[in-house]
Amino acid sequence: MTTRPLVLPELLPLLEEIPTVDLSADSLPGFRAGLEQAAGQSFLQAEDYPVTLERLSIPESDHTPAIRLFTVRPRKESAAARPVLLHLHGGGYFAGQPELTATQLCQFAQELDCVVISPDYRLTPEHPFPAALEDAYATLCWITRNADTLGIDPARIGLTGESAGGGLAAGLALLNRDREGPEILFQNLVYPVLDDHTVTGQPDTSPVGGEFLWTRTSNTFMWTALLNPVAPGSADVSPYAAPARATDLSRLPPVYLSVGALDLFLDEDLAYARRLIHQGVAVELEIVPGACHIFDQTDTPVAKRSIARRIDAMKRGFGL
């Protein structure tokens, strides 16, 4: 189905700027290079914000290699310990780096008066599941252990991520609950990747999702690389890799979930939100009409409205 007429006119330039490509092993190097260039540009723009940008490192451990961190903190002094926002970047699990949305992270740091910490987690296909998840959990634990040095309040940790980073954040919330790790106040999930069943032809899927920017072919390549050697759709897929697989969603932090109506992940995100609600988790859901994947990474009115709503939700999550 041709869905271009359904795309918000203000987002059409995005489709011209980033042509839709079905990702594969052959096209992956080019995709990685493109995101690396975008991250560099975003980092340069972030230097114009009244924030302090740092690159820190978590030492190697028995479970993880050394992990590079990108951190953003307001430049103004604070007498009190600040809340901390743990951010996990997107990129299909096989590309991207924390600086990819650096300007957005600067906005979060300013408006929430918080410290943002984003790990450069290991990528597939070189490092399949659970490498990225263990890196994310190691970062969460490191934050709490080093709270005094970082000037943060370990009792006020929020979690956010977009696309693959949103799925990773949801998986981290599940793992952290089951390991009885540090308390997380909220999950701010942006068009998260949640269900490997999308590659097996689910019934009653939206006919208007996934034409642009992130296709079913790219999605199959992503899940295959992430789960290797387990096959997507098989019975052995871990719920920490595909959070939609989890049968118990109780006792999770409150969720704010945002997704475009034309996004491939709409169906799985709606189903996950519904199940969370049924198991007693507070959920706030934003469905953006006429919006495709990564719509928020544009300088458009619809992106600004969506980001403002997320910031408002995170303020409430931090008790601000």
UniProtKB/TrEMBL annotation:
One Pfam family from the record: Abhydrolase_3
SUPFAM superfamilies: alpha/beta-Hydrolases
Keywords, in A-Z order: Hydrolase
Keyword Metal-binding (UniProt): no
Residue ranges annotated for the Alpha/beta hydrolase fold-3 domain, each copy included: 85-295
Entry's Gene Ontology molecular function annotations: hydrolase activity
PANTHER family referenced in this protein's UniProt entry, alphabetically: AB HYDROLASE SUPERFAMILY PROTEIN C4A8.06C, ALPHA_BETA HYDROLASE FOLD-3 DOMAIN-CONTAINING PROTEIN-RELATED
Protein name as annotated: Alpha/beta hydrolase fold domain-containing protein
Organism: Gluconobacter aidae
Taxonomy of the source species: Bacteria, Pseudomonadati, Pseudomonadota, Alphaproteobacteria, Acetobacterales
